[in-house]
């Protein structure tokens, strides 16, 4: 129950008392029997009835003002469930390998590996890794920036040499202060002239890698951070994760090592990354800037909810993940609802959500008779708790209330640890997390502090704005000098933060024109989009990363036989910052 509910209650109570005064003046005989006077009521039972009626009216009034959130939430749960689920705590963690136990061929820590934090209020928060990480007996021994060259020294251990190094790629996380790492991100992806592998202490000619050997990480579907439904537009995931946690995109992968002749380099080499232009204001680069063996981590885990005993007198049931510590868990999503009946023989049924788009067997959903489920997310009624609670109800296809035939219903959930991760201590040299699986890891540290939970607005008015996604396409987004594009970006700033608002306002102008490009042996017609940015609005963030996210986002809007090509300009540089190749979805068209 929110704090604003008290205002509704007091307004209704005041209105009823005013009406009571008018009633007492107009019908004194009846009012006398009720002991109702213009300014007071002597009968405590009548007074309690008035207060109870005011409470009911306040609830109805608030629901009307919220534009019936049951309707908007049901629509969003089908089309854009990511817009109703709370965004859990996110972090970037680094594994420190126990070098002597890491095999020469590497050790894979798979995606989804569970990490446990140190105990806080008796609860150990549970995170899961978002990227697979291969541990190598390798470290970054040194890194520096001088004379337009970024040098990264890689050293192998356990008597392993680069002649035996079996990986084609190495993944780095750019660690450090945000204003420096975002600048470094642009230099490595948009200002590289050539890359060389240089032997250390040996007179061996450098081995060249292509300047495109460095690729950004985090944009592909298999690199998504949060669970994302298949029916939702993939481009929205890019925006959601960027505004929630831009650090997830600060991963870079260097490839082409397996084809490079590094047999005589021994166990140490320098990666010399030559830049096209001066970097402008200098920024610090050290060995800690390039983190190996790192991955984003998300505070999500599977959980079986407390069983729900079906009672025919109840319209909805609160879903409780765990009775022992309800304040330490929040429901992210309901993944499955199943029921079991005891008589005459145990029967298990799986219930489907009412607004499911397709049946599991591929048939028409209208052909199904039976009971379906609906969920409603509401603000917690506990004082001081900013979390949400989830309620489950059952109905038939006509949306009329219906009771499942089962006596007990169980739910499989995806949960988070509510607001606890945002208060976790971090920076312990011995490690901030314990890895659940056996692995040659000495310590697991958070290089980015776990974020606070972000929650979308639950009011119907805010959710109707999210539903407006349905009316947009890639051309309507670009019309009116990008006003619709800015409005869409604001939808994903759940907290209306000044930093995010500043980035959105950093879009100075948006224009587009229809163009024709040669794609292989064919001529293809598409759209060239030009966006001008004011870099002063991106202090502490990265205009290049922001433009890269928009480039991939616009590419997802393209129809099958077309393309989009983004041209990013800077008001300060007075030049084109980057012109991306034509794109159709995940594919770059060359």
From TrEMBL:
InterPro entries: T6SS_TssF. It comes from the Bacteria. It holds the Pfam family T6SS_TssF. PANTHER family: CYTOPLASMIC PROTEIN-RELATED-RELATED (PTHR35370), TYPE VI SECRETION SYSTEM COMPONENT TSSF1 (PTHR35370:SF1). NCBIfam families: VI_chp_6. This is Type VI secretion protein, VC_A0110 family.
């Amino acid at each position: 129950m929110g704090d604003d509910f008290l205002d509704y209650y007091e307004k209704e109570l005041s209105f009823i008392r005013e009406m009571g005064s008018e009633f007492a003046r107009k019908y004194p005989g009846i009012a006398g029997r009720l002991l109702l006077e213009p300014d007071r009521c002597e009968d405590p039972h009548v007074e309690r009835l008035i207060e109870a009626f005011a409470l009911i009216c306040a609830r109805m009034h608030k629901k009307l003002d919220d534009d019936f959130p049951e309707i908007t939430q049901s629509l969003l749960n089908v089309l854009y469930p990511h817009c109703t689920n709370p965004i859990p705590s996110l972090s970037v963690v680094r594994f420190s390998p126990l070098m002597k136990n890491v095999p020469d061929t590497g050790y894979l820590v798979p995606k989804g590996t569970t990490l446990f934090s140190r105990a806080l209020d008796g609860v150990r928060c549970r995170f899961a890794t978002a990227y697979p990480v291969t541990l190598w007996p390798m470290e970054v021994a040194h890194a520096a920036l001088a004379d337009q060259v970024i040098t990264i020294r890689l050293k192998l251990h356990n008597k392993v040499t680069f002649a035996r190094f079996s990986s084609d790629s190495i993944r780095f996380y750019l660690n450090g202060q945000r204003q420096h790492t975002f600048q470094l991100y642009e230099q490595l992806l948009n200002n590289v002239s050539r890359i060389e592998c240089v032997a250390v202490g040996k007179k061996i000619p450098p081995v060249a890698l292509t300047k495109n050997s460095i690729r950004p990480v985090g944009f592909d579907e298999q690199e998504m951070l949060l669970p994302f439904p298949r029916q939702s537009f993939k481009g929205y995931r890019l925006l959601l994760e960027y505004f929630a946690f831009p650090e997830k995109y600060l991963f870079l992968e260097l490839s082409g090592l397996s084809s490079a002749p590094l047999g005589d380099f021994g166990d140490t080499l320098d990666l010399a990354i030559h830049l096209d232009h001066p970097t402008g204001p200098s920024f610090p680069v050290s060995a800690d800037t390039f983190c190996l063996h790192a991955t984003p981590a998300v505070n999500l885990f599977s959980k079986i909810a407390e069983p729900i005993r079906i009672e025919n007198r109840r319209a909805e049931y609160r879903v409780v993940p765990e009775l022992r510590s309800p304040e330490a868990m929040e429901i992210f999503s309901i993944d499955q609802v199943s029921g079991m009946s005891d008589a005459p023989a145990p029967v298990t049924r799986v219930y489907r959500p009412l607004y499911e788009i397709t049946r599991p067997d591929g048939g028409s959903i209208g052909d199904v008779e039976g009971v379906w489920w609906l969920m409603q997310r509401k603000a917690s009624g506990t004082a001081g708790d900013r979390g949400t609670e989830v309620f489950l109800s059952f109905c038939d296809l006509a949306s009329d209330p219906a009771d499942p035939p089962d006596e007990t219903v169980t739910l499989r959930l995806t949960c988070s640890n509510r607001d606890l991760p945002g208060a976790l201590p971090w920076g312990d040299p011995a490690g901030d997390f314990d890895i659940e699986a056996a692995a040659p890891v000495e310590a697991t540290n958070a290089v980015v502090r776990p974020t606070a939970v972000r929650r979308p607005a639950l009011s119907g008015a805010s959710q109707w704005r999210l539903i407006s996604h349905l009316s947009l396409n890639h051309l309507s987004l670009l019309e009116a000098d990008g006003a619709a594009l800015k409005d869409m970006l604001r939808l994903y700033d759940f907290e209306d933060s000044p930093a995010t608002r500043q980035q959105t306002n950093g879009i100075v102008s948006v224009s587009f024109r229809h163009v024709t490009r040669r794609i292989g042996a064919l001529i293809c017609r598409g759209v060239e989009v030009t966006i001008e940015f004011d870099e002063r609005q991106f202090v502490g963030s990265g205009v290049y990363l922001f433009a890269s996210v928009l480039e991939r986002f616009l590419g997802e809007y393209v129809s099958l036989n077309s393309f989009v090509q983004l041209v990013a300009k800077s008001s300060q540089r007075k030049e084109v910052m980057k012109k991306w190749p034509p794109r159709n979805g995940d594919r770059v068209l060359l």
